[in-house]
Design a protein that fits this description.
202 residues, 3-stranded mixed beta sheet
Length: 202
């Protein structure tokens, strides 16, 4: 890998195009990922928002679920937004019947914690590691993190609820930074991908 990492976006459902644009603006080579062979070619992966049960079922259908779990266990840098945050949780408080996750972050997440679609909102969020003004967070049927393990770093809260976390090479936010034109959270993730690649080459 050069200084320009290849970052995939899981292209099964959700704001795939918006993430691809944000990653390109953050100096990554951005690619959609729908098949295991495409997953094998990326240095990092974004799991976008959407509907977490649908993403889980489609990942199974496309043969991506187990390869994705394996790569995350092996340290693949991964970033989940909204439903992607749910997919990275070790446990969901109120899962749909049969719903599973990829895992990767030692956290318990509550689905739709901030309300339904018509209760969506925007709010300024101070995100640790993102310099400058607060990030404008777009919360759409957003989850929040109920609790985290000892090795999870809380990056942001909103109204007393955890909305951004990091554990090792895994990052997750309740909100959608890809919808605002502010690419600083994606730049933070791309730097995580770049740092992982540099460490792996030493």
């Amino acid at each position: 890998m050069t200084d320009t990492p290849v970052v995939g976006v899981l292209a099964l459902q959700g704001d795939v195009r918006e993430h691809l644009i944000a990653l390109a603006a953050a100096d990554a080579v951005a690619r959609p990922v729908r098949r295991p062979e495409e997953l094998a070619e990326v240095d990092g992966l974004v799991i976008p928002g959407g509907e977490s049960t649908t993403i889980f079922k489609l990942a199974e259908l496309f043969g991506l679920l187990e390869p994705l779990r394996a790569r995350v266990r092996d340290g693949l840098p991964v970033y989940g937004t909204c439903a992607g945050m749910i997919m990275l949780a070790e446990k969901i408080l109120d899962p749909r019947s049969g719903q599973e996750t990829v895992g990767g972050i030692d956290m318990i997440v509550r689905r739709n914690a901030f309300g339904r679609q018509n209760e969506s909102f925007e709010a300024a969020v101070d995100v640790r590691g993102v310099e400058g003004d607060p990030v404008e967070g777009v919360f759409i049927r957003a989850p929040w993190v109920e609790s985290v393990g000892a090795t999870v770093e809380v990056l942001a809260e909103h109204e007393g609820h955890i909305v951004a976390v990091r554990q090792g090479n895994a990052l997750a936010t309740s909100f959608h930074p890809e919808l605002t034109g502010d690419h600083r959270v994606h730049a933070l993730f791309v730097e995580m991908v770049r740092s992982k690649a540099v460490a792996g080459s030493l």
